[in-house]
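testing teh design pipeline on a random one, pls ignore if ur not involved
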């Protein structure tokens, strides 16, 4: 039990720390010298960054937020298996959860981060291709039909624990998936209110000058 708790703390710490490297904040604050959190929705996420700045640096944001999720899942799953305290699947979900927490509430950026869609989607890819196919499919389909990024995000987050249960019918694994999905829904609470009022902005490939 002691070894299990120790590895949990280690993986949680590493994954949270990796999650704190928010691509939108790093690029806008330290390269563009113009913090993304002072623009648009105030969210340190890919959509707000693209709408505000656009340009090739958007790909740096994408790579940063994807790479940290990849590293967190790989390291987390390896540590749990290496010390023989849990399965690789548990390690992937556990590390993914804490990477999202770090992305959303980064200690180095005053706990004001992004909403976790890109990083969460990358975690899904790292966990299982079937999970990624459905979650990303839901997101892209709704985005294509409505042009609401938030609507696709909300339904993808809600689908995460449901699809997890069908692929991996395990209570603990599903609880971790529900925690990830719940965090994403929580971060989109303002978007949900705007969607219900018909005030949400639609996605456009044009950005502000």
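output:
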């Amino acid at each position: 039990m002691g070894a299990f708790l120790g590895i949990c703390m280690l993986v949680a710490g590493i994954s949270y720390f990796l999650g704190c490297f928010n691509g939108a904040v790093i690029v806008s604050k330290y390269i563009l010298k113009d913090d993304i959190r002072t623009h648009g929705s105030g969210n340190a996420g890919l959509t707000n960054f693209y709408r505000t700045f656009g340009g090739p640096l958007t790909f740096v944001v994408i790579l940063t937020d994807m790479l940290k999720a990849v590293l967190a899942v790989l390291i987390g799953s390896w540590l749990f298996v290496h010390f023989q305290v849990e399965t690789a699947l548990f390690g992937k979900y556990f590390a993914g959860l804490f990477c999202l927490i770090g992305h959303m509430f980064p200690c180095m950026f005053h706990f004001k981060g992004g909403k976790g869609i890109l990083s969460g989607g990358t975690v899904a890819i790292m966990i299982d291709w079937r999970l990624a196919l459905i979650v990303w499919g839901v997101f892209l389909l709704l985005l294509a039909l409505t042009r609401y990024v938030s609507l696709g995000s909300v339904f993808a987050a809600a689908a995460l624990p449901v699809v997890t249960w069908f692929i991996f019918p395990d209570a603990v694994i599903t609880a971790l998936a529900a925690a990830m999905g719940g965090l994403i829904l929580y971060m989109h609470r303002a978007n949900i209110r705007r969607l219900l009022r018909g005030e949400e902005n639609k996605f456009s490939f044009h950005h502000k000058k």
